[in-house]
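[User]
Um, tokens okay?
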Amino acid sequence: MDLPAAERLPWSREAWRDTLFVLSGAPLQAACWTLLALPWAFWVPERAGSVLSLLLASCAAALALVRPLTRAHRERAWAVLGRDLPVPPARPGGLLRALRAEDPRRDLGRELLYHLVVGPLLGGAAAAVALAWAGGAALATAVFWPPHAALLIAGLTLAGLALLAAAPWLAAGVRRLDVRAMAALLGPDRARELERRVEDLAGKRADVVDAADLERRRIERDLHDGAQQRLVALAMNLGLARETLTDVPEPARRVIVEAHEEAKAALAELRDLIRGLHPAVLADRGLDAALSGVAARVPLPVTLRVDVAERVASTVEAVAYFVVAEALTNVVKHAGAASVEVAVVRDGPTLRVRVADDGAGGADPARGTGLAGLARRVRSVDGTFRVVSPPGGPTALTVELPCAL
């Protein structure tokens, strides 16, 4: 956080905090190069193979130091600044496993970039901060030196005061650079974090879609086994009464007839509702049987082709079923078509659904003909939805669904 100028005075707590943070990082930032150079102190030119062995030893020592240095920098940020830097995912299996794995290797490369390139540069900046404080303090006391030329003493004193005034700003700038570099190179990879979040959200969305499908199935089963059976019994009893009670007064008979018709209408509506939630035949016998039943109820010639050798995920089956059912309903209500062709084909990992009619065309999802709802349902399982419907027809609705969620 940037602080006002009053808090950047040389004697302020923030100035000393930034200076402490910058100077405490300098030994850590020089550690990797120190380890790389240290084995060369034992180099014996006359010994064969000593160069290669020393090179391997120095590189191994630097690699072994990467993790401890990263932890030390993270602890430094917390102890001095109170800044908690996110920890990247652990690399299981040790350093060799990390070098072989693709994703952990990206983390290791970022850490090496900090410790071998960015860190030493920041260490040089830390040396400049130390020089500004030490040099400023030394020059600011020139007024107390043995007498010399007054103008030289005044100039040195002013230069020292200027260095002391600039040192807190320099320390703050180096601190900001160091914190940003650590967050970018020693913390989690933001691109990978976004990928993980997208995967997590996709998994959660798939769980929600599956849960909604399971809930629809539960409601369908409860209605089928409960309310529908009661309505069937009621309609049968009223029908029996209608047929047998012929000697009752006409007003009573009329009430029985009306009740019987209402019970049959309610039963038909309930069956349509159950079929709209999740038809039992779809779960029991698959898309071919379920869509054959849908096509048989359409008052138009329907050419149906279902080529799904292996059943797909139940949620995808449900989406494909409702796409065809809603599309056929739209054709009957709005298209004025003479015939419809329906094709459901599995092509590897993709289930393709196509509904084409020879009607008047002009279908537009934006006009609320049920197509917008279908598009949302298709997108809920990462499918694609496309309608080609020029004025005058024909209309072709094409949907592609992933077979597995």
About this structure: Residues 92-96, 98-104 have pLDDT under 50 and may be disordered. The chain is about 65% helix and 10% strand. The chain has three domains: 5-188, 216-277, 282-402. The CA atoms of residues 21 and 81 lie 7 Å apart.
